[in-house]
Automatic annotation (TrEMBL):
<dbReference type="InterPro" id="IPR047057">
    <property type="entry name" value="MerR_fam"/>
</dbReference>
<dbReference type="Pfam" id="PF13411">
    <property type="entry name" value="MerR_1"/>
</dbReference>
<dbReference type="InterPro" id="IPR000551">
    <property type="entry name" value="MerR-type_HTH_dom"/>
</dbReference>
<dbReference type="GO" id="GO:0003700">
    <property type="term" value="F:DNA-binding transcription factor activity"/>
</dbReference>
<keyword id="KW-0238">DNA-binding</keyword>
<dbReference type="GO" id="GO:0003677">
    <property type="term" value="F:DNA binding"/>
</dbReference>
<feature type="domain" description="HTH merR-type">
    <location>
        <begin position="10"/>
        <end position="80"/>
    </location>
</feature>
<dbReference type="InterPro" id="IPR009061">
    <property type="entry name" value="DNA-bd_dom_put_sf"/>
</dbReference>
<protein>
    <submittedName>
        <fullName>MerR family transcriptional regulator</fullName>
    </submittedName>
</protein>
Length: 125
């Protein structure tokens, strides 16, 4: 767990920019370049980044700025790290502790609420 990231479910773009040192326009650009980097959007169309998104920003910052990868090279490097097949399923099947399970359930509930709000929004217009 990255100790640079506060224990929150969602972060706004300004918070992510402050935490990572990456300007908001660069974050928006990276969204267009990396398929795995897609924050959810609130009803007011604000980007809401999850912890995994912030962790990815730190990873991209390292790959692009510290290690000197190009966007294409960073994309390839990220694909190498993604678990696939049986190994990925085994990672998902790890037992959860009571505390970890509660955190996970809260995150799922929060994400479902955001999705529900997004689904309601067009109907109310």
């Amino acid at each position: 767990m990255d100790t640079r990231i506060p224990d929150k479910l969602y972060f706004r773009i300004g918070e992510v920019a402050e935490l990572t040192g990456i300007k908001p326009h660069v974050l928006r650009y990276w969204e267009s370049e990396f398929k795995s980097f897609k924050p959810v959007k609130s009803r007011s169309n604000q980007r809401l980044y999850r912890r995994k998104d912030v962790e990815l920003v730190f990873r991209l910052k390292d790959l692009l700025y510290e290690q000197g990868y190009t966007i294409a090279g960073a994309r390839k490097k990220l694909k190498e790290r993604q678990p696939s097949g049986k190994k990925a399923v085994e990672q998902l099947a790890l037992p959860l502790t009571g505390a970890r399970e509660k955190v996970l359930l809260r995150q799922i509930h929060s994400e479902l609420s955001v999705l529900r709000d997004r689904l309601k929004s067009p109907l109310e217009s």
